[in-house]
Amino acid sequence: MYRAIRFLVIISFCLGCYSSLQAQEFEPNYVETKVPEYVLPDVLKSATGKLVGNRKEWERSRRNEILTLLEDNIYGQMPTVYDSIRYAIASENKMSMQGRAHLKEILIEVFNHGKSVKINLVLFVPNNARKPVPAFVLINNRSKDNMDPARDIKSNFWPAEVVIDAGYAIAAFHVDDLAPDHKDLFINGVLELYPEQLKADNGMRAIGAWAWGASRVMDYLEKDSLIEKDKVVVVGHSRGGKASLWAAAQDERFAICVTNCSGNTGAALSRRKFGERIAVINTAFPHWFNNNYKAFNNKEDLLPVDQHMLIALIAPRPVYATSASEDLWADPKGTFLCLKNAEPVFSLYGLKSLLPEEPPPIDKPIIQSPIAYHNRAGKHDLTLYDWKSFIKFADYHFKPGYK
Asked: Where does the signal sequence lie (predicted)?
């Protein structure tokens, strides 16, 4: 009874528009002994049955094969061609945060077929650091107040001051600029530039649009002399964490990927059928993923991929996935196992994962590893604890001599 009630609370919070009758049709499994037996697709076995034995074979064939499978069956195509892109400084304050940071509000406008989409980027760069500096970029799926450039509103969801004091630039853009998170309104944005995607069963939808937007932000950061362009970290929480993974898989310019409490179709294995399920996502959020994905509602075992293969696409670049102890909906153990099953691809690059065989205790992060993980005490959220861990992860990979 408790599980059913908790599910109703989650659905009501996320949707607001679904009837309780519809919600009661699904009761999530939160019992580990009820996880069914499953067999994951072999990340190193090609469609022809050949096993990949080295990084050249991975990069030449298997990686692209998996990327196409994910595009066609889940996330949709990723358009890469547009007519033009323009950058304009909408506002600037070189002495923001009491002189600690240089604030830029940048308008990124992308044009295609006579239409445009505008991305509003908020960027802070530390003033006391040697330039250029590494940067964190958040795909913000919460309130725009979290990225208040005036800093009248401060939030641990985007603790800009903490990141600045650690010597990193920090940027954020809001998902609504690319595709409003609404089943009818998501077409207003990037998809106006690519209307053909809406007609295709494997076409891009909202999650893909947000990932596309992260790449357009990367286009700008490459040109900003204050930013160390080969040290940019893409970060996302929940549905934004699904998008950060897809952005990093598609765009190898992102040096590190962080996905926080991203759950099903993020960094948790679908075949475990634990917590959130594919059918629930596709029913509640039909605008997130492509039409083909709906064929796998309650048929996870028929998917030609699972989420460990998405993690593998980011190799050899470091990946940090997180969970929260009270967030069983997002399957903490399934997230850890997803990372573990991506390890063979990192091994092709001579990178040894230091993840243990079993999930680590709560609040005991595994950071000094190419694949990192923690399960934070608490609820589904992006917190200061998470951000401080991400900074340590970036320090480890970006700063020689880190201890």
From this structure: 1-23
